[in-house]
Amino acid sequence: MPEVAIIGTRGYPSYYGGFETAVRQLAPSLADAGWDVTVYGRPGQERSDDPDLDPRVARRTTRGLETRSLSTLTYGLTATLDVLRRRPDAVLVMNCANGYWLPLLRLAGIPAVVNVDGLEWERAKWGRLARTVFWWGARMTARWGTELVFDAEAIGRYWRRELGRDGAVIPYGGTELGPLPLHDDDADLHGVPFALLVARFVPENTVPEFLAAARRIGERHPVVIVGSTGYGGDLDEQARALADEHPRVRWLGHVSDDARLLALWQHAGAYFHGHSVGGTNPALVQAMHCGAPVVARDTVYNREVLADTGARLVQPEPAAIADAVTDLLEDPAAQRALRTAVRARAASAYDWPSVCAAYERLLAEVSGHRVREFAAVS
């Protein structure tokens, strides 16, 4: 049985971000395809009572430094050192910041497939040191990674142009769902067109601009804001003050209840997606599977994902956001057309069985093992 180790996430099963979402799908699928799968994680980040936990997936925890700039590097190093001792047939590395440790895997003869993530060195949330770490990690990844994975065509074009490396384009997937009832705390929104934001509170997600726009939107329609910085700060205080001042605006903070979040996407009259840095965004893909009528910041990445669905694309300005969201909330026919179009786009281009099959083929190729096709796509 071929062995694969997955490093660079917070563990399995974990619900922190896009990488963790992907691993929750990918690890069991690789086990279905005949792989012995080990996922490396961090202490206290895994949900061991998750009913969907697959017992075939081995979990290993290593130590590191819990700081914003060094956590990825240090946990990546300790996981890599353990991998060198265990010597799997292939390693799937999430995040090009772990590129610093790829020479160790190359010298040991262990092939590494690297999901490079987005362009972290362009994110406003990082200081100069962190951006420098990510940039040089990307250069190390370009030099030492066996195969690279880009989650969007636009990311691939950047790597080919700026770093001289090609790779495979494998996006994120999403899950199609039947109708979900709103959570009891949101039940008053049933049948009411409301605006929704779901985002980590960082500037590049257009959160400050949406909070300003929400004041205008909230004069006529309910606004639901999901997200936080995770550690407090100015944007959290702005969201709290906005919700306190405006009866139609509610700030839920971070929502860990998946069913509640999915239901909000299904019932929203307009979902604003403001992410500007990165490739295929997992939240946007899942929102599309839920049929959320999308208003998105106009970026090359959002254009690629939304394609010809007719989703509204806007500049990152409060007035433009408020106008587009309000217009959509007051146009039921446009909402219905968008729901149908984004669901169709998500089903055709961003489904988990195809994503997992693409990863399995690539891992099989680099490790020299026979490709095992998944039953879902065979």
How would you characterize the overall build of this protein?
The protein has 13 helices and 13 strands. Strand 8, helix 6 (207-217) and strand 9 (223-226) form a beta-alpha-beta unit. Helices cover 42% and strands 14% of the residues. Helix 1 crosses helix 13 and helix 6 packs across helix 11 (318-329). The protein is an alpha/beta fold and 378 residues long. The chain is globular. The two termini are 20 Å apart.
Q: Nutshell version of this structure?
A:
With 378 residues, this protein is of the alpha/beta class.
Number of strands: 13
- Gross morphology: globular
| Sheet with the most strands, sense and barrel status | 7 strands, parallel
Mean pLDDT: 93
Widest beta sheet: strand line-up: 3-2-1-4-5-6-7
**Broad structural category:** alpha/beta
Please trace the helix and strand order, writing H or E for each element: EHEEHEHEHEHEEHEHEHEHEHEHHH
The proportion of residues forming helix, as a percent range, comes to 40-55%
Radius of gyration: 21 Å
Keywords, separated by commas or semicolons:
378 residues; alpha/beta; seven-stranded parallel beta sheet; six-stranded parallel beta sheet; disordered C terminus
